[in-house]
Amino acid sequence: MGGVGGREMRHMLWFDPTLDFHDYAILWNYHHIVFFVDRVAIRVHKNNGKPNGFFPSEKPMYIFSSIWNADDWATRGGLEKTSWKNAPFVSTYKDFSVDACKWEDPYPACVSTTTEHWWDQYDAWTLNADQVEDFAWVRRNLVIYDYCVDLERYPKLPEECDL
Fold first, then answer.
1. Exposure winner among 117, 136, 162, 163, fewest CB in 10 A?
2. Topology of 9-162 in CATH?
3. What's the whole-model pTM score?
4. pLDDT tens-digit profile of 99-124?
5. pLDDT band at residue 91, thresholds of 50, 70 and 90?
6. Which residue, among 29, 3, 23, 17, has the nearest Cα to 115 in the 3D structure?
7. Dihedral angle over CA of 116, 117, 123, 126, nearest 10
8. What are the Cα distances from residue 140, in Å, to 37, 136, 154?
9. Contact yes or no for 147/6 (Cβ under 8 A)
């Protein structure tokens, strides 16, 4: 955590992301963090209510983007080679927007469940039935690496893996 990682997952996508732009979104509220690709939930990290350092109740949220670094966990232990001849690797974004509350010390009201913002309405607290079905399909078919099952890297799995 703290920019170091340790909570990685890797997915195959159901399309070639280099051929066209796609919609990538993150819903991050007190209840969970959900990563979406073209409105399909591909990762859900639920808040178990215990101190963890990355839910908005403890410190301001921030986002950054990087291009995967080819560590062993991401290359299936080196089985997938990185083609450096394609460097430099570039990501391009369009129509980027952020809708969030501003952090105000010591503790902004918007980080708790206020229901004042779209991300903190009841419908944003859990996945709907269609999203649950899509997410289950992603988990069954597209997850290549999940830290919650990597006993070699984590002999004692992180607490949130029990959820």
1. 162
2. Jelly Rolls (2.60.120)
3. 0.81
4. 887 777 776 666 666 677 888 888 99
5. confident
6. 29
7. -110
8. 16, 6, 22
9. yes
User: What sign results for the dihedral spanned by CA atoms 60, 157, 126, 40?
Assistant: positive
For 124-147, give one letter per residue: b (16+ CB within 10 A) or e: bbebeeebeebbeebbeeeeeebb
| Domain residue spans of the chain | 9-162
Q: Which residues contact 132 (CB under 8 A, 6 or more apart)?
A: none
Contact (Cβ atoms closer than 8 angstroms) between residue 103 and residue 10: no
Q: State the average pLDDT over residues 63-67.
A: 73
From residue 155, alpha-carbon distances to 18, 35, 42, 123 in Å are 36, 26, 25, 36
Tokens at 125, concatenated: 């607290």
Q: Which residue blocks in the chain are alpha helix, DSSP H?
A: 129-141
Helix count and strand count (H, E) for the chain: 1, 5
Length of the chain: 163
Q: How far apart are CA 40 and CA 130, in angstroms?
A: 9
